From TrEMBL, chain A:
Compartments where found: Cell membrane; Membrane
Organism: Candidatus Sulfotelmatobacter kueseliae
This protein's name: NADH-quinone oxidoreductase subunit K
Regions annotated as coiled coil: none
Purpose: NDH-1 shuttles electrons from NADH, via FMN and iron-sulfur (Fe-S) centers, to quinones in the respiratory chain. The immediate electron acceptor for the enzyme in this species is believed to be ubiquinone. Couples the redox reaction to proton translocation (for every two electrons transferred, four hydrogen ions are translocated across the cytoplasmic membrane), and thus conserves the redox energy in a proton gradient.
GO cellular component: NADH dehydrogenase complex; plasma membrane
Amino acid sequence: MVPLSYYLVLSGILFACGVVGFLIKRNIITIFMSIELMLNGVNLSFVAFAAHWHALAGQVFVFFVMVVAAAEATVGLAIIIAVYRTRETLNVDQVNLLKL
Amino acid sequence: MSVHLVLFLAFGAVAVAGAVNLLAQTHPINSALSLIAVMAALAGEYLLLGAEFVAALQVIVYAGAVMVLFVFVIMLLNAGVEEQTTGSRVAILFGVPGAVLGSVLVAWVVLRHSGTGEVPAGALPGPPATIGPLLFHEFLLPFEITSILILIAIMGAVVLASKPPSAPVPPREEN
Amino acid sequence: MPIWLYILASVIKSAVVLVVLLTAVAYTVWLERKVVGHIQNRWGPTRVGPFGLLQPLADGLKLLVKEDLTPPHVYKPLYIAAPLIAIIFALTSIAVIPFGNPVTIYGYSIPLQVTTDVNTGLLLILGVTSIGVYGVALAGWSSNNKYSLLGGLRASAQMVSYEISLGLSLVGVLIMAGSFSLHDIVDSQAGHFASVTWPALDPVLRFIPRWNIFTGQIIGFFCYLTAAYAETNRIPFDLPEAETELVAGYHTEYSAMKFAMFFMAEYANMITVGCLATLLFFGGWHGPVFGPTILKAVLPVFWFAAKVFVFLFIYIWVRGTLPRFRYDQLMAFGWKFLLPLALVNVIATAIAVVW
Amino acid sequence: MTPTLNLWLIPVLPLAGAAINGFFGKKSSRTAVSTIALFFCGAAFLWALSVAWRFSSVAPVHQEYLAHWIRSGSFSADFAFYLDQLSLVMLLVVTGVGFLIHIYSVGYMWDDAGYYRFFSYLNLFMFFMLTLVLANNYLLMFIGWEGVGLASYLLIGFWFAKDSAASAGKKAFIVNRIGDFGFLIGLFLLIQHFGSLNFTQVFDLVTKLPAGPVTEGLLTTIGILLMVGACGKSAQIPLYVWLPDAMEGPTPVSALIHAATMVTAGVYMVARSHVIFERAPGALTVVAIIGTLTALFAATIGITQTDIKKVLAYSTVSQLGYMFMACGVGAFSAGIFHLMTHAFFKGLLFLAAGSVIHAVGGEQDMRKMGGLRTYIPWTFMTMGVATLAIAGIPPFAGFWSKDEILWKAYQANWIYWLIGLVTAFITSFYMFRLLFMTFFGDYHGHQVDAHGHARPAHGHDDHGHGEPHESPAVMLVPLMILAVLSVVGGLVGIGNGFEHFLAPVFGTGEATSAAGEGASHSLELLLMFVSVLVAASGAVLAWVLYVSKPYLPQKIAIALGDLYSAVLNKYYVDELYAALFVKPLVDGSTTILWQGVDRKVIDDSINDAADGAQQVSDNVRHMQSGNLRSYAGWIAAGSAVVIAYMIWLGVGR
């Protein structure tokens, strides 16, 4: 038997790692991966809650999250490719034209 | 210290290690692989929770499809080791502490209720047979909407990535 | 059954299956060389042993003792990891494949498969194969060579593309069986036809088993076979290792045992595909069972092996017959023909079942 | 209220005219404009006549409910109309005289640029005035009250290009505000104590109030406050100063608004709320004193004025004083009676004066006139009739009403009577002075006047000078009609006919005096004789001074010296007000409000705020570095804060 809170803490750790990765990584692809990491952390908490409340809907939600993540990955990577074509770099610090 | 707990801790350790490695590695391909490890470990956690279908999907969709796409893009763009530019002090000064603080707070709150909800191994067997009706009856509309979303994503990817003649990015989100 | 016995049985089963599988791999190579040779009006290997039956041993020995050189420009960790990934996942996917009904020894029913019958076995296989992509892709990338890179790119793109068709082609069978468990799927194909309307035809019909291939999954089978060939990078879809275009594709830089690993992985995958085809479309181990108990126990496994052999032969036959596609043709075929076909199959099957 | 009289038509018709002329008049021709204006005004007049015709068949007080207006708690004020003998009289006077003056204006204003504007304003004034008259509660009355103020402002400043006109308009407006302030406070008091502004309800409650010092004090306060409002509107001391300046407006305006109708609104209001005043003797006394003083005061000023319209203006003020005196002594019907007759002859006087000005080409200084009776006989005759009427020569209208007032005043207190008598003498003197200076002697049209009292021509220069010429018929016909009215208008008062007609309204307010009447009938006749004598002597004196011995006035003026100049300068009242109120106000607002508050406080604070915002945003702008990770950092930090806050709120528990 494992307390629900352990699962939640684990998912929280993964999510935090994703956030930190988003913050400290320069490579746009890695940053994108950090987003996926966050999504995974959230999924874990979904499944844990589903098991806790005996509600399969949680797992269905995970399914939807995956679908959305896949779509987002597709478009995001396509955008990355487009950006790379134009800016010749993957470093987000150098892709900062969108400002005042 | 039940078997369940042991397995949980093992998979959890793998997941956390992979996540940390993702941050530590400077080469995107290594980060990608460590992320795959995280996903595999999470699949294990799902199995522990009895969500077989979700576990399988986790492997097939995430590890087998999305991450393949990542690796593909890394290879396509031949992404090298990331250069250590200091573009944003804010992210380091406020962001990281903020993220850590937030997670710590959440963990604190959650752990204060430790022991309330015990999740037995395979507490909720989620075989496809039971997921299916849920997915195609209760959540039929969201399901259809996600399909439309995916269609749009395909077209968006094609439009975005196919300007000059180059290796085509195969739209890659079915499964 | 006590846990220790369970573990013991598992160990024994894994060992047996591993040995058998590796041997099968080795002799599949021999078979291929022989058959292709005969197709091309050659003899194939003849020197080593009768009919060159010892050729695989010689090859293995050679690959083992050859110098394992690692080019200086490669990205070492992945360069080393890639073949391991390939072979490991290739062998893993065998684990969930049942070879026959559980046999009872001393009152203990032992399933004839490495793991117990997980009710998502098929999904597991799909997942493993989808992971297997990384072997090729990483190999291509890490060897830091443009031919290899192209090979890796091709491999990943091709495999992920055809994985969709592969999965969809199986859905028809899943609908008819109503389960992911390979056991259930196989059991759903037990027995033979019997016409209620025309009893006169029964003498003929009862010789036709109720395999999925006969119960309407012919299209699904075709889709599965094609997609599977693409998944295993076999001719006519062996773009990643097209000798004539990119020297040897993703394993250009590999030699000796690492190369052997890729090699074995490929053939192991072939066998897995054959097993799956047998289980899903050709009734698995079902077949005429007769004779004494021991024979009764062995025959199903024999039938299973025989069917798998047929598929391996078809593999080789195809290789000896068909030319290689162009890459754009590959993609177009996969996305514009195979995928819609598989979808149509799914819909048709669903309608038929609901009817 | 068995048969509905559709009273609402009466105010609404002029409003329609005003709207049509105001919106479309600019494009349409003068004929169309005048047709519309006259049609709607005349329609209102005819409807008023029909109402008067059917009125006898209606209950003595006819109320008509039109629509909700304000319903807050127990308080309610509706668009409802109230018709009794009093408002009927006002109705007829307003519509009738108004219609005549409309006709007159067609001729008088024909050459003016703002023709449509003028008639639109005029109709608007009619609308508001009728609303004022017909309102069945003080609030609606106040709307009309303010509305006529607005109309009068617009019309006084009709030639707004002229500074004097614009400032005169402003003056009228501001002075009226002072009065309205008092009026409003009175209304608030009414609401506070009676919870209603409806005439009937208020008056019922007032009559039911128990006698005693408390009630008396309250009603006296209310009455005096209402009186202040009336003073503002009807130009009584101390708020009369705006009326003479109001003569800057076109002459028909002076006739209609500043002689016949609007300025009498105060009197009407006091009469309307007679119930309150009757129970507040103190307030009545104030009214009487103010009225009396105003009458005398304004009359004395009127002697020295040389501007023909100013003379008439001051005489208006003094006549209004008469009316207030009547109300003050409780003779409301007499006041209303005089109001009516005064509307006739003073309107006539103004119109005639306008005709004169029209004749001599915009000249208003009487010293540049003279001998005009041969040039403009009709104007002369009508104006003569009016002069006789105002002077109180029997059997003209003025005689009856003024005599009535004097008689009542005598019954109340002989001092009122005495002052009224003196005022009557002065009145007849300066009126005949005006008449003689204008029409007798010989024409000084082109000679430079000795005193250098050059007054600017009133926008009629396009008439061109030259020989004085008679006005067109469209101007003369109203003059004649009014002349006839001035002659016969007073006859309704014979035998207290008018008083009995108004009896249902004012009840037996005069019953006591009526009782004493029989006894002192001979006395009344005596007083009547005296007043006529006085009026005649005034006329004779004027004849002596201005016709037979024209050199005398100079001598007298020099002899009187300072007194004369004081009177000539209207007792320096304007200068006094300027020194007392205007200058401190202007200086204070300039130094404190403008330089101090507006510049220092408001402007500076706003500028500082703007500068601060600019600087802050200048610094904050750098937050938008365009760097993805920085944004993410802000988000992460913010989310941490939010999480901490929620935990602090206790979401975790």
